[in-house]
Amino acid sequence: MNYSDDIINTFWIFLGYLVYIPVLLLAIRRAPWWHARLNTDFNVFLGMTVATLFFWSVKAGFAEGLSLHLVGATMLTLMFGWAFAVISLSLVLIGISLMGDAGWQAYALNATILIVIPVLISHGIFRLVDSRLPNNFFIYIFINAFFGSAIALGAVGLASTWVLAMADAYTMDYLIYNYLAYYPLLLFPEAFLTGMLMTIFVLYFPHWVSTFDDNRYLKNH
């Protein structure tokens, strides 16, 4: 994760912008901006964005472009919806780039891997669960938050490994044994933290979570 400009060629940089820019523009258009006019909602959004920036800055690095850190995309998606999650994580990536932990030329490619993929997967899992499974508190927490965040992060690892191999930054064998092999160690912390925080939020601050409704998940059971 967090590609630097030195290891990514022009083709992949261009491809990153080709994917990320349309998603960002759609997110800006679809985001429920009336929430931003509510001080509580805006403060929660900023607070979660800053907290996510902190988690992204705490990482383990193996070689250039090979670093591991928590993503938090599923939690932001469940809290604010996919559009605001894309915007929040885009701000986080700007902060990471300003800190020198990611390349500016590779910004869109980093955003595609670290933002677009996990946010859309998290949103897709939520929509699937919401339409096919009962409105149950434990289903919401364990499938949407716990397993959803693990699946989203696993997809990030697979996509990141594939791009690095296709860009000839490292060989696939090297990446599998020295990068991808460490992702399982990160899946449980991501899932546990997301599940724990979402449990706290929906129990004590349900108005912070746009995808959760007391009347559907708690009061009818």
| Structural class label | mainly alpha
Report how far apart the termini are.
Answer: 42 Å
Q: What is the CATH topology classification name? A: Arp2/3 complex 21 kDa subunit ARPC3
State the low-pLDDT regions, or none.
none
Number of spatially distinct domains? 1
Order of secondary-structure elements: HHEEHHHHHH
User: Strand percentage, roughly?
Assistant: under 5%
Q: Bin the helical content.
A: over 70%
Q: Helical stretch count?
A: 8
- Indicate the CATH architecture: Orthogonal Bundle
**Shape verdict:** globular
State the name of the first-level CATH class: Mainly Alpha
Strand order of the largest sheet: 1-2
- Assembly state: single chain
